Known about the structure:
The chain is an alpha/beta fold.
Amino acid sequence: KSSLINALLGARLAYTSKQPGKTRAIHFYAWKEAKKILVDLPGYGYAKAAQNEREKWEKFIQAYFEQDTHLEQVVLLLDARHGPTEVDQKAIEFLSLRGIPVTFVFAKADALKTQSQRTLRKREAVEGLKQLGYEVELPFWVSSLEKIGMKELKKYLCS
């Protein structure tokens, strides 16, 4: 997530780590190019944290979504290698129930090495999102490491 933020902003502002779940607070970034404020919330999926810590994050994130009256959209990062997990599905349902617009971004697209892997994963991902009530033709598939899909995502978010 932090690598994606840095790639979008064109600067190394967000702290990156090999270990997921390092973001433990809300971070605000002025995205001058898009004339927007980009907000980084704690991740909910792969962080190595105690259950009570995760529950605190959940309440923290929920309170943020309820308080931010200028929220334009949520960019929901999903792992291209795994697709929407059970935890992702809960996040999607939470956002859907509140009518919050969501842009789906599948990160780590570079991990899908063959065309058949990419085709299969994309089909599964779109089908999984449809089952959750989202008609998503083309979610974004990106790799901040190899810059796959970054121009398209940046153009979309800046518009």
